[in-house]
Amino acid sequence: MLANVDWAIIIAYNLISVTIGVAMTRRAHRSTEEYFLAGRALPWWIAGTSMVATTPCFSHSSYMSASNC
What we know:
Blueprint: H1 4-28, H2 32-37, H3 44-67
Protein backbone atom coordinates (compact mmCIF):
# COMPACT_ATOMS: atom_id res chain seq x y z
CA MET A 1 0.00 0.00 0.00
CA LEU A 2 1.31 3.42 -0.87
CA ALA A 3 1.78 6.02 1.83
CA ASN A 4 0.44 9.56 1.56
CA VAL A 5 3.92 10.84 0.66
CA ASP A 6 4.06 8.42 -2.25
CA TRP A 7 0.70 9.62 -3.56
CA ALA A 8 1.78 13.24 -3.17
CA ILE A 9 4.91 12.57 -5.24
CA ILE A 10 2.92 10.78 -7.94
CA ILE A 11 0.35 13.57 -8.14
CA ALA A 12 3.02 16.30 -8.16
CA TYR A 13 4.94 14.51 -10.92
CA ASN A 14 1.83 14.17 -13.07
CA LEU A 15 0.83 17.81 -12.52
CA ILE A 16 4.31 18.99 -13.49
CA SER A 17 4.28 16.74 -16.58
CA VAL A 18 0.88 18.03 -17.70
CA THR A 19 1.92 21.65 -17.07
CA ILE A 20 5.07 21.25 -19.16
CA GLY A 21 3.06 19.49 -21.88
CA VAL A 22 0.47 22.26 -22.06
CA ALA A 23 3.16 24.95 -22.13
CA MET A 24 5.07 23.20 -24.92
CA THR A 25 1.86 22.61 -26.88
CA ARG A 26 1.02 26.29 -26.80
CA ARG A 27 4.56 27.15 -27.83
CA ALA A 28 4.54 24.58 -30.65
CA HIS A 29 1.30 25.92 -32.10
CA ARG A 30 3.03 29.15 -33.04
CA SER A 31 4.55 27.51 -36.12
CA THR A 32 5.83 24.20 -37.39
CA GLU A 33 9.33 25.68 -37.47
CA GLU A 34 9.08 26.30 -33.74
CA TYR A 35 7.99 22.70 -33.18
CA PHE A 36 10.38 20.81 -35.44
CA LEU A 37 13.42 23.09 -35.39
CA ALA A 38 13.14 24.60 -31.89
CA GLY A 39 12.79 28.02 -33.47
CA ARG A 40 16.22 27.53 -35.07
CA ALA A 41 17.74 28.36 -31.69
CA LEU A 42 19.40 24.99 -31.04
CA PRO A 43 23.21 25.01 -30.99
CA TRP A 44 24.82 22.81 -33.63
CA TRP A 45 26.38 20.49 -31.07
CA ILE A 46 23.03 19.61 -29.47
CA ALA A 47 21.49 18.83 -32.85
CA GLY A 48 24.56 16.79 -33.81
CA THR A 49 24.53 14.86 -30.54
CA SER A 50 20.87 14.04 -31.06
CA MET A 51 21.54 12.73 -34.57
CA VAL A 52 24.54 10.65 -33.47
CA ALA A 53 22.62 9.22 -30.51
CA THR A 54 19.59 8.15 -32.55
CA THR A 55 21.34 6.77 -35.65
CA PRO A 56 22.85 3.64 -34.03
CA CYS A 57 19.57 2.83 -32.32
CA PHE A 58 17.67 2.94 -35.60
CA SER A 59 20.24 0.96 -37.56
CA HIS A 60 20.54 -1.62 -34.80
CA SER A 61 16.78 -2.13 -34.57
CA SER A 62 16.53 -2.36 -38.36
CA TYR A 63 19.28 -4.96 -38.44
CA MET A 64 17.72 -6.96 -35.60
CA SER A 65 14.28 -7.05 -37.19
CA ALA A 66 15.75 -8.08 -40.57
CA SER A 67 17.78 -10.87 -39.00
CA ASN A 68 14.72 -12.36 -37.31
CA CYS A 69 12.82 -12.95 -40.57
